[in-house]
Each structure stands twice: as structure tokens, then as C-alpha cells.
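Q: For a teaching session next week I want to show students how multiple molecules come together into a single three-dimensional assembly. I've collected the sequence lines for a complex. Could you give me the predicted C-alpha cells for the whole thing so I can convert them for display?
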Amino acid sequence: MIPKKFDYYAPSSLNEAIQLLTENEEAKVLAGGQSLLGLMKLRLAAPTALVDISKLPGLSYVREDGDHLAIGALTTHDTIEHSPAIKEKFTVLNEAASKIGDQQTRNLGTIGGRACHADPAADLPTALRVLDAEFVMKGKKGERVMPASDFFVDFFTTAVGHDEVLTEIRLPYLPPKSASAYLKHSLREHDFAIVAAGTVMTLGDGNVCREARIGLGAIGPTPLRATTAEQYLKGKVLDEAKIADAAVKAVEGVSPPSDVHGSKQYRLEMIKVLTKRSLRLALSRAGISGI
Amino acid sequence: MRVNHKDYSGEVEPRTLLVYFLRDELNLTGTHVGCDTGHCGACTVVLDGKAVKSCMVLAVQASGAEILTVEGLADDDRLHPIQEAFRENHGVQCGFCTPGLLMSSLALLRENPHPTEADIRRGIEGNLCRCTGYVNVVKSIRAAAEAAAKRRMEVER
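A: Of course. Below is the structure for the complete assembly, covering every listed component.
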């Protein structure tokens, strides 16, 4: 399968890349290519030009930066999966990265590419949404930073302008006594999620839930937060009944699609199951077990 | 680019996929085209030390890269130890997926010389075998790891 013809540019700096994108309105940014090339081969995408940023120096890193962990846009899923800092502090992202495709895909695919591709069934967007990640974009007019709640706009659509490049993703550190988990339900392990749930749990004194975050994936055009369930859990001492209540509340206002992978009803049930399991897992990691 | 320790240069159309450059331009037809959609892993090569699917990389992206294909494994008539292990353990049935599996195995064992069975199965997750030969493939990779460990011990002695 051969993509449609396109012009290929390999800029040597970020500024040159931005310039090329400004000049070519139909151009697409090529990073790891593990989503974009697939679409181009199937001719579901046919950009007239590719601006290959994969060789640009200084865009692949995981480093501590004040109140957040900074991840370069070209950091591969494999690197994220094996980063001790991410594993320890942002387990939900580590688990999401480890569940993407297969080893070959994780070796080339990048966090920035996955975020910009914005496939609603992909693993990373859900994890980034629940972590309240911030996205750094650079363009002609300079730099802007945007929260995940605004970054994911629609199916395969983000807030990145056509003449902008996503350069960094920032993960604000979680308070002490926090833990997270990512669970995905798919037919085979490396498939896209039928539904996915990523949760972050922060405990306070006396094991009261200080904050609960529930991110849901593959249930609509963008990853969502189950805010009603989050509000319900806040300030409560948690037990099995409250977790079950939260799982029921997690599907309030959610309208997942029916497709070949699962009906709407099936997805709604599975959201409850995954929310429950994911909350329990995050809780046990935060130090409360037996729920 | 450097392929199997030899330098090659050429001009390609930007849309040329690496697998077609290897097969059609360099005549290295050991790398197979299976699904051509990035699922089956038959086209796996080792690019700068990492296993990648060569149908999911543009040839121009691999400009300047170091690539190893299945042709680069054997030393003249002497099979690579991983190939030897596949032969000994009947890790090959029809052989179509084998070049990709060998390259994934090589990258896996270089990164993790003592893999558990779970590590092996995860490492070859991106390689489909339609003869259903996974049991013997896993056995072969394990045998290759054990043989390499034995060789290392002998060298140390």
C-alpha cells in the first residue's frame, strides 16, 4: 500500500519546521509515523507535504522541572514505559504507554504524535486527561500552554494550529498519598480500547478521599472526565459501596457509541466495571487495600 | 544508510516505504511484506538497535540509519545463533514470518539477555505467525538465550 504523493521536508530546527508549516497549509507533521503513515497508506489521509521533525534534536526527554515533570514531544512510548520517574509518580501514564500496540510500534511512536493524532480510543490521551497534563505548543507567534481539558477538541482533532508544533507535555506532580492506575478493555491486548479507565486517587488524613479523578477513553469524541463521580467521592471515607456508587455515577451523561467492537449498552456496563477496578487498584497503591 | 554493515545511497520518492527500498532497490528480499498495514511484523528489521516494522517507516526517514535485515544475521555459511536455535527447535513452519521474528528476537535478546517466557511473548507480540507456531518460536528464543548465556560463561572461564 503506497501513500499518495507528497513533498517531504526534513527541517534542521524547530523554527524551520514552523516556517515550513506556515508556508504549506496542507502539510502534516511527521513524528514517529506509526499512526500517520498507516492512515496515508490507506489513503484516509493525503497531506500534500510532510514536515519530518523526528530527527530534530532536544525534543526527546523526561525531566523534572519545578512543580511538574516535563516530557519532550518526541519521547517514544517505549521510553515512557521504562522511565522510572513516570513509573513511580505517574503510574497511569506508564501503564497506558505499555499497552500501546506492540514493541515495534512503541519503539517508534511518540507521546507528542499520539496526543496530536487524538484518536479517542488511544491510550495516552485518556491518561493525559486524567493527569491534567499541559501541552506546550510553539508557532510563529511564540509559545502557548494549554490544559488537556481544552487540548482535545474532537475526533482526531486538537487545539494545535496547522502552523504550530507540540513540543512538550507537562505533568503537574500529584500531592503526597496519591496513586493512579490505567485499565483498558480490548479484544486482544495490543488492540485499541473498547473502553478504558484511568484513575488518580489522593488520600487525606484518616484515609479520607481528598481528590478522585476518573478519566474515560473510547467513549466519545475525546477522553472525558467523570466529574459527577469525582465530586461524589471527594471528602468521603471510601468503602466498597461508595466505589460501586461512583462507578454508577461515572456513566451519567456519557453516551458511548455502538459499533462493531461493542454496543452502547455493553460499553456503559464495561465503564462501570473498569471504573470500579481502576479505583480499587489506585486505592490499593495509595495504601488502602481490601476494597 | 548502512544496511548489514554496508553503505548504500540512492534517491527515492518520498513515499517509498523502507521495506520496498530494501526489497526493490537493494534486492534484500529476505524482509517480507505480509499485511502491508503495520500489523503482522513480517517486515521487521532492526533500525539503530530497535525492532521496527519497515512498512511503517519511509525510506527517507531511515536516511543515515544503521539497519540490520535477516540477510545480515548469518556469517557466510554459519547461521546466527538465533537462526540456529530456530532450526534446532523447529521454530519455523512455512517460514514467511520467520525473518521478522528473527529480527524481533535479536532486538529482544540484545536488550534483555535473560527473558522470562512472558518477556519473550511480549517481545514478539508484534509478529504474527499464521501456522500457529508460537510454542516452538518461544522455545527457540529461550534456547538462543540459554546458548548465549553458556557461551558467555565459557568466555569468562
